[in-house]
Each structure stands twice: as structure tokens, then as C-alpha cells.
Amino acid sequence: MAKTHQKNNLEAGKESIKILITTDEYLISGDLYLPIPSVVQNPTNENLLFYALNCGNKFIQLYNCVISNKDSVEYQPEVVNCYNINLDIVHSCQIIKED
User: Fold this and answer.
1) pLDDT tens for residues 52-76?
2) 20: Cβ–Cβ under 8 A, 6 or more apart, which residues?
3) CA distances from 6 to 9, 32, 87, 97 (A)
């Protein structure tokens, strides 16, 4: 079954997206406030996320975070209102689809 690529255009009034970040030790999910759509020529969520991660910033700030330790899954995840992440430790980042 072939997967089709569906663009997620930035909806009016939607300022953040839910993302999942993977590092060596942690899985971090949270809300990332996107840059102003006018900074990117094609303002999809994916393009704005790419811009936020690659525009020369050293850190990003996530809100309503859930931080899980990959090695100790038996422990309850930590919940943090606001969390700064150094982009040097990020292995991967993906948008979490919300239903």
C-alpha cells in the first residue's frame, strides 16, 4: 500500500505544533511555537519546523513537555511547563499528528 504525502498547511490562529525529539538518553514531546509564516516562502508546518531547527539557533524552547528516559521506561515521565533544548544533542525531530 503506497503512502501519500499530505501537506499540513499552517492553519490560521495555530501557533504551535506538537513534536517528538529524540536524544541519546531521552524522548521529549512538547509544543513548539513556530516562527512567523512570512519567514518561509511555503508556510507548511514541516517547512516552518525545518526553519526553526536550521536558522542558526543553538536552542529551541518547548512547552508542556513530557520527558521520558529511554533506558528507564519503568519510571514515570517528567512533566515540565517549559524546557530549553540544545540542538547539538538532538538526534531526530518529528511532528506528532494530533487527532
Assistant:
1) 787 777 898 999 999 999 888 788 8
2) 27, 28, 29, 93, 94, 96
3) 9, 21, 27, 12
